[in-house]
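haha ok so turns out i had the wrong file open the whole time. this is the CORRECT one, sorry everyone. sequence first:
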Amino acid sequence: MMISTRGRYALRVLIDLAEHEGDGYIPMKEIANRQGISLKYLEQIVPSLSKTGFVEGVHGKGGGYRLVKAPEDCRVGDVLRLTEGDLAPVACLERGAKPCDRAYACRTYPMWTEFHRIVNNYFDGITLADIMKTDMSDNYSI
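then structure:
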């Protein structure tokens, strides 16, 4: 499974807004500059965050975006499912997938099902607040 830049950047935007929530509405341009993300790309990501109630925006002078939910109420799993779609590792586990004709005989099905459960439980157990507590000195370069 590969999380796209869309999912990673959406998380960065939300964390940025959470870290600056006392500043009122933050212009997208400021977020783009702080995060090193193209403004054009953010303009594709932020509307979906707004439509789903993570952020709200105000147009005009003094406008911008702000986080609507508390950081502890924003689960990483919800953001990734919004930006990435289903986090299923195989097509037969995607939401709404037609049942596989071979499921009864598929030796790998239980493995994929467990992996899917682990991934969703892991990401649903992390909030923006948790990420904000991360000690950056623990990071090391690759």
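The domain at 5-67 is CATH 1.10.10.10 (Arc Repressor Mutant, subunit A).
again sry for the mixup
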